[in-house]
């Protein structure tokens, strides 16, 4: 039945697939071989200006079309990828694909794209060169790429993060602090980081109607972002009342199931249509190298 299928899909999507060390090794090697075979897929979730409703960009979210297990969400395989050097290959693919897509869209309209960087990439020596090379290869202006790093990853290595994010920003790339509110960054630390954007974590956003405490946090983050001159994004907007409150509190950009679910490029028509450029929903031609 549909309910059963849904249930199974949710289970496959939501937790680490590797139940033991042997499992983990098999999956890591399947992933390593799967990437060049084209098994990774990007879905894109639209982001909109809170007041005008204009499309401001899309976030690229990776999935793995596993030959036996079906379409896997990031929570199923990113943790195990993150524990192996294959995370560098995965990130290289995601970054190249997203940048190629944005360059393709740019023939019609500029659609900024956000890419998530795993914690391990912050420590990767070749990161800045990689980003520079990918942008150059596809001729995408750096300002159309935002790199999202989680607050937790930054706090795990604050010195390194400050240095590498500074170098990326010097390329012209935008930097977003993702899942903000979960990592206890001090005010002084935050003011010191080279950032363009704060992205408030879904767990706070989804609770603003029911928990005064979370509403207070989400409001004070807005005040903070204004002070630090950071663009403020809320993820996980699922209902109209939440959307209205966030706009009233000064959130600049909104993302969530209410406004648009992550979807393959082919399904982006309605989202991009709001930007009056429906032709953007065309997939990359097969011969575009990534
Ligand atoms: P994230 O960067 O915080 O991305 C937002 C996640 O929230 C996505 O889940 C998205 O589908 C989901 N989401 C968006 N709006 C709503 C909503 O209104 N309600 C609910 N319940 N969920 C919403 P997804 O695609 O499963 O990705 C999960 C996480 O995996 C991402 O969280 C990100 O941390 C990571 N991730 C995804 N793609 C990549 C990637 O290419 N590289 C790396 N390193 N991490 C990635
Ligand atoms: Mg993100
Ligand atoms: Mg996030
Ligand atoms: Mg999140």
Automatic annotation (TrEMBL):
> What name goes with this protein?
Diguanylate cyclase (GGDEF)-like protein
First and last residue shown, out of the full length, are: 311 to 600 of 755
Q: Which residues form the EAL domain?
A: 24-276
């Amino acid at each position: 039945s549909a309910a059963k299928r849904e249930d199974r899909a949710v289970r496959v999507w939501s937790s680490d697939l590797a139940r033991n060390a042997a499992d983990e090794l098999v999956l890591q090697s399947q992933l390593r071989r799967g990437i060049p075979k084209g098994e990774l897929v990007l879905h894109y979730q639209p982001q909109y200006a809170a007041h005008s409703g204009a499309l401001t960009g899309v976030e690229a979210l990776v999935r793995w079309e596993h030959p036996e297990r079906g379409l896997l969400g990031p929570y199923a395989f990113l943790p195990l990828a993150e524990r192996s050097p294959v995370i560098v290959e995965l990130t290289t693919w995601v970054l190249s694909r997203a940048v190629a897509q944005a360059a393709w869209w740019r023939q019609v309209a500029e659609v900024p794209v956000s890419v998530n960087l795993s914690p391990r990439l912050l420590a990767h020596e070749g990161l800045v060169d990689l980003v520079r090379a990918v942008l150059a290869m596809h001729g995408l202006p750096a300002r159309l790429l935002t790199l999202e790093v989680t607050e937790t990853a930054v706090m795990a290595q604050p010195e390194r993060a400050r240095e590498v994010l500074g170098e990326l920003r010097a390329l012209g790339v935008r930097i977003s602090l993702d899942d903000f509110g979960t990592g206890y960054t001090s005010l002084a630390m935050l003011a010191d980081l080279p950032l363009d954007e704060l992205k408030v974590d879904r767990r706070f956003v989804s609770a603003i109607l029911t928990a005064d405490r979370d509403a207070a946090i989400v409001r004070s983050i807005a005040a903070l972002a204004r002070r630090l001159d950071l663009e403020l994004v809320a993820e996980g907007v699922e209902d109209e009342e939440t959307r209205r409150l966030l706009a009233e509190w000064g959130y600049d950009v909104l993302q969530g199931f209410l406004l648009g679910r992550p979807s393959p490029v082919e399904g982006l028509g309605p989202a991009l249509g709001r930007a009056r450029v429906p032709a953007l929903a065309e997939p990359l031609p097969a011969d575009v190298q990534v």
